[in-house]
Amino acid sequence: MLRFGIAAALAATALTGGGLASTAAEPTAESFDALVFSRVTNFYHDSIPAGQAVIEQLGEEHGFDVTISDDPANFTDETLAQYEVVIFNNTNSTPQAGALLNADQRAAFQRYIQAGGGYVGIHSASGTERDWEWYGELVGAFFLSHPPIQELEVEVDDRVHPSTSHLPQEWTRTEEPYDFVTNPRGDVHVLASFDSKSYTGHRMGADHPISWCQNFDGGRSWYTGMGHASSAFTDEPLFVQHLLGGIQWAAGVIEGDCSATSERNFEKIQLDGNTDDPLAMDIDDTGRVFYVQRGGDVKVYDPATARTELAARFDVLVEHTHGMHGIVLDPDFATNHWLYLYYSPLDEENTVVARFTYDEATGTIDLGSRVTIFELPSQREVNAHEGGGMDFDAAGNLYVATGDNSSPCCGGYGATDERPGFEYNDAQRSSANTNDLRGKILRIHPEDDGTYTIPEGNLFPPGTEGTRPEIYVMGLRNPYRIHVDHETGWLYWGDVGPDARVDSATRGSRGYDEWNQARAAGNFGWPHCIGANQAYNDHDFATGESGPLYDCAGGPVNDSPNNTGLTQLPPAQPAWLPYQYEVTPEYPELGSGGRLAIGGPTYHFDGANPSEAKFPEYYDDTVFIAEWTRNAIFEVQLDEDGRPAIINRFLPGVEFLRPIDLQFGPDGSLYVIEWGSNYGGSGRGDPNTDSGIYKINYARPGERSPIARATADPTSGQPPLTVTFSSEGSGDPDEHEITYAWDFDSDGTIDSTEANPSYTYTVNGDYTAQLVVTDPTGRTGVANVPVSVGNTRPEVELVEPLDGQVFDFGEPVPFEVRVDDAEDGVSGAGVDCADVVTQPALGHDQHGHPLERYTGCTGEIQTIVDDGHDEADNIFYIVDSTYTDRGGDGVSPLAGGDSAILQPRHKQAEHWTSASDVVLYDTQEGTGNRMVGQIGHGDYLSYEPVNLRGVDHLRFRYASSGTGGTVTVRLDAVDGPVVGSGRLEPTGGSYAFEEVSIPVEDPGGSHELFLVFTNAEGDDYLFNLDAFHFGHTLLDGVRAARAAVRDLSAAAEEHAEALTQPQRDYLTSAAGRIDGELSAAMDTATDDPDFARRLDRALIFTHQARQWVGDAGLPADVAAALLAPLDEAAAALEGVIGSVDGVSAALAADGGEVTAGETVRVTATLTNDGAEAVRAPAVELAVPDGWRAVAAGPTSATSLDPGSTLTGAWDVTVPAGAAPGEVTLTGSAGYAHVGRERVTVPLSAPVVVRPAVSADGVTVAAPLFSGRTSAASVTVTNHRSAAAAEVTATVTVPAGWTAGSATATVAPGATAMLEVPVTAPAGGVVAGPLAEATLTASVQVPGVVVGGAPAARTYAVPHGDDLVLALDGGSDTSPVLESYARLAPSHAWDAARGYGWVTDAPLQRDRGHPDALRRDFVLDNRGPGVLRVTLPPGPHTVSLLTGDPDFSTSGFVVEADGAVVVPARATLPTGSYAWEQFTLDGGAAGRTVDLRLSSPTGNYWRILALLVDEAP
Description:
The protein is mainly beta. Helices cover about 10% and strands about 40% of the residues. The strands form 24 sheets. It has a 10-stranded mixed beta sheet, with helices on both faces. Strands 22, 23, 24, 25, 26 and 30 form a 6-stranded mixed beta sheet that branches. The chain is globular.
């Protein structure tokens, strides 16, 4: 066999093409044979020879044999059997270009892998055999596309595997960054990923694996998407070592774990699925899981019996966020049996942290053993943050996390409301109070006698005035789940932040949630600072004025009157890992969505741990965190400074339903509490049947435990109770047969081995039926089902409101609850309505904020938008109703419940339930509001639940610069029944919003509402959708009137001190009378005559109240405050009554526009489409000050018959000096109605005031020649119909430029073009970014307002006659700039011409824009290009223009005379240009010089222009 060095191998490969070549090596213990296959039928990578050569060299150096062959005939069983690994070295093929292997060869290769063979894929190996599904699974993912080659960061995920253990955690290199059709994470073990923040143009999103490995189909597969350039193999030892480790692992000669992030190698085992609001847990040394439930239960799961027992039930306050909060076991629990609980006792004022003793003999907690550690003041009047996490460090110190006990207030910004009576909105009294234990993490050392001591290193030494020594960390809002790393002593926690979505100039930072790390005591800023030390303004809530930002770095000043501690606070610490609702630029891996940060533990690998289920070494020193609303767990790898370096989603394909606590057990497995899919849980009437305690084991395929699932029907009732059990959902992930063993009565005896048995219970009791499934390896899975015999679960029905019902914030929502309990009776007859609890909550994204609780079977919920949110947020209402029965003889009580989600009448489109491939954009209105964009034909949005009762149309707010399209409203599916449809036409701009109403029908019931968007097939952009409104033609007006009546009551309360008691009584009575009629109207069909009568009476009462206010002699400000809502109510009612009577009105300006100084006809119409004539119809018009309106006919009549229209017209003259723009004209149309005053309908119509003269545009050539005069052409239009315009035009120019002026007389209605002289400054170009100049036109006409200030951009270059040499790069046929010479690829060196190529002809491109000089250029990426030019005697400045209008431009190198004269600059973005400049000397006699152009990264170099000028 032949031996090759790298250079020889490159040459030999070039000569032999696909022929066989191999290297031999002396056999070693790790000797193996490798086949290198580099065949292509598609794109050929120049790096293939370099890859072949380096693999040969590695074989020589490391003792393995290498065969190089591109012959597919080697893919037979006999030939492949000679090799331990087959390396696909930048292979590339497409079905169109032809496959690399035929069917027989593919089958042989598949058998080779299945027999234990190894595969290595390099770079475009993923772009190979793309029609072969098995190969795609072998490689891991198929290539999709790539952006330009660029420098980027590689994050090395696995620091243990032999192919990556030598790499730095962050590896900087230049690469062609591949995107893949699918993300392989979860299917393979990811070794390294691209940091998506470090480069541009990627399409896969934030998570971008690039090297990975897997045990696949019996064999081993290792792939890297890197290796595009030859330099990777010749100049990068780190990459070569990476490749070597992959080859050796795939060959099977070195160990390496390629399962650590593969979901096939983990099993999620349910320990207890019969949980009810599980919150927190701790695990003892035997693996028992002690966990608490919000309702007060402390339970213990014992792995020895696979059963959960109740250890204690505490009477706790389950309201707002109160309840049972946390649990932690004493470090010496095995001997002292102490555990600590954090809870809100029902019969005590304060929240308590107390120690209890667990009785091992009885399996219960001795409630009498309570030793109180802390009593934390806790207001319970409003919803507030409680915290509740606890943990011990290695020194036995106890950490306790407390919430700020403040409400989610203040618009989602800092909670610093210092107004009297608003103390619950001021976290300066708690979190920022050094003398208060709330909003903190406390650190103490519990002593055996129940006292505690203060460890060294807390934030304030004992005895410091105005402080509490227990404080370790202050400035927290709602710290959730704390964990101490016992190896480092570092403390981790999640902190739930406020809800503001956008930064505010007057309030400060948007909201962030935070995962935090504390290595020492500190202040973490709340409520003065948030996130990475972004500050809030010192806002005065009394005046609404904002002061300066708080000083986070220097330490905020807490001057709140509610503060009892220090005024000067310690410096605020920036968050360790903050994130926002949108994608967080620094941490895009976290995605977007709701926010609720859950702190988690740090895993430390222990090779001595005998557990087979322990997490692998890959996760050593990894911090695990969870995001509750995003149903996600993340792994965070730290850099050497302890900062987050690499973040990956843990098991992205595994479902985690609101993970709320994470712990590693003594077996090295991860234990997870899942809250379940419902927001509120049982404590808020919304029980989660899918909550549970889970254990995540690391397990190899074939060694995974079977899964047990058990259900029962019924689960409660009187004996004899026959229950049918089901094991549906049970199975084995390794596809083994399983056996079943049922114990129905918890006596330890197997009662049935059937899959789906039945059993009859005859004795009262609380039973736990247990199913154990077993696979042939002896591994088991367990599921438990509780059964209550002697009591029946109550049936609870929330009659009102309906699920999906639409509501207005601020309006009262009636509720009605029905209960039917087999033992207790029904609502009002056996069931005491006082025991029926209805708990509303303000839903926000994926969670809810509980509000005031109601008792009773009926009532009225007062809806609000609290201070922490606004109506643009994803907010809604949740109404939960529950009833807990009285239990039975020896049987525990059972609870039943029902719930409804209420949709806001105004719905932001981005708050969908599901959607097709659309994206979100800012509406650019300065509110942070978003719209749904890129809506194309066939796209959809859905919203669930929705009930269309009281809705007869949807009003869409949208914008479109596209084709427009049809919105079809469907039920429950994209092709479901249609309930409405309508067109949304183009609006003229992507942000030019308009509103269109589409009628819909109420089908009854609750549905998922689909908005399906269509136009012509292939239309990719129809429109952008901002929001939609659930409306009703008549009821919207009634709702508006009711809202005005509520405002009347609020105004009366605000001015109560200025009113006498009789006056207050009258206003209360009047509001009640009006609202009573309106409420009754809402409950009446709109076509019922009583609907109109109710409205009539409401309007009469409204007019009476207006009259009373006017006659009551009230102070002017009080009367005005009371009349305003009454006027609003009257206007709303008159509008509804007009619709009921069939009367409509409209106002319009002819043509919709008018020229300043001229006249337009404005018309108002009043149409009677009702059944009866109306009396005294009239129309009126109001115009702005300075405008003049002259009636052109009658504007009133005695009566108006059915089917008739009254038309009034006015000639409206606009002042000559009126400002251009849209003006809204207003008016009214009214008529007399029997029994009351007039019904008046307000009118409005937009009219666009055009300027008398407008500057419509300016054009200027690009480029201009320096020092030479050109012209800017200014287009002017005289919009007037009679008067000519004497126009003077000029342009404003940059400093150093000069411009003249031009004049003209423009006839009425004519357009003229004025040529304004412009001169760019003389001189050469300046090195650096191409300097563009903006020229803005200015037009003056005496006595006339001129509209428009158009602008144009250009740039200047020297004229060719002013240069020694002026070359315009491009093709042989592209335009050439005047006075410049063409530089084309065909221009070989020509001494007579004085320039030309001495290397092979380069390439050329002509983009067709933006101008003659920049549209076309010469370029190449196949290697260096050398341009020879003749230099005259003396020094000369050479200027080279580079850039590209359509693509980014990578930096390249220019060399002359053997030296680098232009180093590679940073990549220029698309559409950017720059001058590179250097000096060369032609000597005394002149000479030729060779300019060598090359790219160090294998990208294109580009020449748009080359100028040679005498040096200054």
